[in-house]
Amino acid sequence: MKLLAAVTDQLAAAIEGKEGTPKALSLRALTDLLTRARREVPEKLRAGLAASLTDLPWMQQSEVLEYRWDAVKTAAMLPSLRRIVDHPPEGRRELRDLAARRIYELDPAEGRKLILEDMLRKQPLFGFQVLAALPDQTLPSIESSLMDNLERTGDWIGRELIARYGSKAILPRVKALSARAPSACDPTLNAYFLRVDPEFGEAKIRQAQTEAAGSRCQALIISQTARYYAGPEWEKIAIEALQDPLVGVKMDAARALGQRGSSAAKEPLFRAFEYWRDWWKNRPAEMNEENRYFERELARALATGKAWKLQKAEFSRLEALCLTEQCRRLVVGRPAEAAR
Length: 340
Description:
Layout: H1 2-15, H2 20-36, H3 43-52, H4 58-67, H5 69-72, H6 78-86, H7 93-106, H8 108-119, H9 128-131, H10 143-153, H11 156-165, H12 171-180, H13 187-196, H14 198-211, H15 216-226, H16 232-241, H17 247-260, H18 266-280, H19 289-304, H20 312-321, H21 325-331, H22 334-339
Helix pairs in contact: 1-2, 2-3, 4-7, 6-7, 7-8, 10-11, 11-13, 13-14, 13-15, 14-15, 15-17, 16-17, 17-19, 18-19, 19-21
């Protein structure tokens, strides 16, 4: 403890005579030293690092904002964060997005204004993860403008924004847009339809599964749609897909149900695993790599499902379904982790 205090005092004294990048690097080093020692970073040091943030190399700026944020966050960061948003070093879009997220965290009103303004650009600067961060289910005041941009440009980000925020009021326009580009394999618009017109959305997903049989679209349409919306109709289709003749489709459904499904998906996943085991238990030597991978996806989905926590007896049931050692390794030890 005394050694740490002596070292931090020496570093703090040395920083006083520095400027620019050398000062920023020293502040970063001192912050890291305190963080690794699980010591609180004083507000004065946080403010100093905040003022010098943009003097750091861009990769270190990213590390501070991503991995050291809880230790260093302070309202004094806002001016540097605004500079990054306006002029990201080397055009680093991911750093701009990270800075925007931190602005929203420190000042929700400013962050909201920033996000809404960006949505209305013909080509938004921020990625979808930032633009989708608002708590609003819909954005009636700007959705007509969002639709105007989408009809004019057809950009993917515009489709994502409609999937995330579009209300039923623009349903006729979205249906017309979909009809002009009739491919059913569009997870963004399909997600929008599932959310505002579930019956029509379900029909579109089933159309995609039929039209794209054997393609990458068919193999991934369930999980890609769930990135934007995963409601009851989506879950019904995903559960049915666990019995699809194509292993790739079943894997995609299992993975998506583990990540996005409700607690009602747990038992169908168990039943799908039981069916798979009954098929392969007497001919393990014939099992191909694709089916071994499917076994692991089923085990992972059940063991780590977001909407449920398996009980000890269920972990035992899951382990008993495994035919391969790789599957058992995924399951063994999970009950102890779940109990923490």
